[in-house]
Each structure stands twice: as C-alpha cells, then as structure tokens.
Known about the structure:
By secondary structure, this protein is of the alpha+beta class. Helices cover 40% and strands 28% of the residues. The strands form two sheets. The chain has a seven-stranded antiparallel beta sheet with strand order 2-1-4-5-6-7-3. The protein has a seven-stranded antiparallel beta sheet with strand order 9-8-11-12-13-14-10, sandwiched between helices. A hairpin with a 4-residue loop joins strand 4 and strand 5 (113-116).
Amino acid sequence: MAKKRKIKKSMLFIIGLVLFFIIYFVAFNFASNMEVTKADPVESENQEEDTRPLINQISTKEKIYLSHQDRESVRVESEYWEKVKVLFSEFSKIRKPESYNPIYSGHSDDGVRFSTDLNYFRVYTVSKEEYYKVPVETKSEFEKLLGESIYLSFDFVKQYKSWKTVEISYNNEVKKVHKWKFDDLSYKMGSKRIVGKVQPEKSKERSKYNFKISIHGEYYDTTIETMGKDYVKITAGSGKEKAQAYYEVHTGLYEYLLKDIFELESSKK
C-alpha cells in the first residue's frame, strides 16, 4: 500500500508540474499578443504619411544640401536656408511646365528633394511632385541666395578636391600652396557659426597678424581672410556679384598659417 501511495504522489507531482508549464506558456503567449496588439496602433501612427504640401515639408527641414554645376551636396547654412524659405510664400502652385531644365538641385536628409531653373521650383519625393512659379520680381533675389548658399558655405570652401590653385598672403609676402598640401589646409578649416560683421572687424583691428587665402577653382574664386584668430571673412565673386559672409571659427586655421606657413612668432591676439 505504501508503494502505491508513493507512485500516486509521484504521478500527481508530474501531472501538476506539466499543468503548471502549460498554464505558464498559455498565459505568456496571451500577454505577448496583447502587447503586440497595443503596440500596433502606435507603430502605424508613427509611419503615417505626411500629407502636407511638399513645399511646406521642405520648409521644415533643418539639414539641406544644394548642388550646382560640379558642386555636389553642399550643406546649406541655416541662416541662408531661412532666407530662401521666406521667398516660398511668394511662389504659386502650377501644373507641370512644358519645358523645365533645372540649374540648381537639392535635398533634405530624409528624402524630400527639390530643383529649380529659377523660373519654376519643383519639389518631389519618390511618389509625389509639385511645381511652383517663381515670380519675375523674386527671381534675382532667389538666384542670389542660392548662389551664396553654396559659394559662401564653409562646407563648400573647404572641399579641397575642387581647388585649382591656392595662394596665402601676409602683408606683401605671398606663398603658393602645393596640391599635395591642399588637404592639410582644408583640415585646419573648422567653422562654428555664421556671425555678423561688427565683432570680426573689431577682432581684425586688434590682431597683430592677419592672413588672406585666395582659392581659385573651376567656375569660382573665393577669398578667406582671417580676422584675428577667432573669425574669418569669406568673399566670393567680384564687382556687383561679390558676396561676403563672416564666420566664427576654430583657432587651428590661424595657428597653422601663423606657425607652419609663415613661421611667425606666436601672438596672443
């Protein structure tokens, strides 16, 4: 009798253990399915298509890249993009024009693209496109801003592979930079932000040394003038086409020109 009771207890224990695991796995699967069901609406909501007009979508983007001729994907400074966006309010939506040959093209960092021939402005994605008419009275300003967005961009200026010749001057002394040194010079160029004119000009007056870098590339000429160790002035074009921008920069460029290129004594100013 004692043997039978032990066998019954063992069987009951095994049966109980099996039932426990069955109930556990059923409960676990049920809870997992509930979590997936709850998560689905959130995932669907996050992937909901942006139904705003494309020109409104591109206006909200922070990272914009612009291309023109052989200039590819130059990062546009936010100050210039803000000025370009202001002009969008003057554009009027139209049907696709019969003739359209873009001069400038650009894109955001998440798939919204645009282009323009300066008469029309196209915004598009893989599944949608919109065309806008650029007012005649706005065309000149629009072209100027797009050009400055590229040629006064620090991102563009330091693209040394497009440089043809580079000269650096201090007072009446001029030194030519050889092509195999282009990357060294470019590496020293690091901007922080666009700034106004007043502070850099004051810094230039206080500085014992100031240098000028003249870069000649295909389709463009650019001058970078140090204004003390913390600022530079970039000038592109000449005459009526001349444009300028001021940047606060890292001091590495100034120190490189001072010590490595001209081998002048260090200055605290």
